[in-house]
Design brief:
The protein has helices at residues 81-93, 145-153, 160-172, and strands at 3-13, 17-26, 31-39, 42-49, 52-60, 65-69, 72-74, 95-97, 101-106, 117-122, 125-127, 139-144. It is an alpha+beta fold and 173 residues long. It has two domains: 3-38, no CATH class; 40-172, Nucleoside Triphosphate Pyrophosphohydrolase, CATH 3.90.79.10. The strands form three sheets. Strands 4, 5, 6, 7, 9, 10 and 12 form a seven-stranded mixed β-sheet that branches. A three-stranded antiparallel β-sheet has the order 1-2-3, with no helix packed on it. A two-stranded antiparallel ribbon has the order 8-11.
């Protein structure tokens, strides 16, 4: 199955994403409109130490609330996911991963965005320095895996990359 792009326009172009509106021809001969958010992707890091996971809490404007997440951030143009993961972990936590391993790459919402997130795990760290962006206000704490799985079950953790990372890692270990 596929769809052929007949025409399109970029409706919005910002610093981290763009929005395209395309007219497409479907395999069944029908025409449709696709709105696609183009995003360069990002990396997320499951930092593990002594049976605990480093979890961040930060306010997310789009949701209007604070949420729990693993450290993560957006990729610079054409940046390798490993480079993004190392940079973001240090910027947000002051930790430099010494044994970064990729767990999985996911499309968090493939119905409307090209965003891809590479999820990594690290268990050994060096000491670096935090470098928050001007608008970031992040708190972090080490929480045991059992508590985190309960937090997923009771709806306290709703972030998709965090749920995927914790679930996959828990099943693999």
């Amino acid at each position: 199955m596929s769809e052929k792009r007949l025409s399109g326009e970029t409706v919005y172009k910002g610093r981290i994403l763009s929005l395209d509106r395309d007219e497409v021809l479907c395999d069944n001969g029908n025409k449709g409109v696709r709105e696609v958010v183009r995003h360069g992707g990002g990396a997320a890091i499951l930092a593990v130490k002594d049976g605990k996971i480093l979890i961040e809490k930060q306010y997310r404007y789009a949701l209007g609330k604070e949420i729990y997440e693993i450290p993560a951030g957006k990729r610079e143009k054409d940046e390798d996911f490993f480079v993004t993961a190392k940079r973001e972990l240090e910027e947000e936590t002051g930790l430099i991963p010494k044994d970064l391993k990729k767990l999985v790459e996911i499309y968090p919402s493939p119905g409307y965005t090209t965003e891809k997130i590479a999820i990594f795990v690290a268990t050994k760290f060096g000491k670096g320095e935090k470098h928050f962006d001007d608008t970031e206000d992040i708190t972090s704490e080490w929480i045991d895996v059992g508590t985190l799985m309960q937090m997923i079950g009771n709806g306290e953790i709703e972030d998709a990359k965090t749920v995927v990372a914790l679930s996959l890692w828990s099943n693999l270990r």
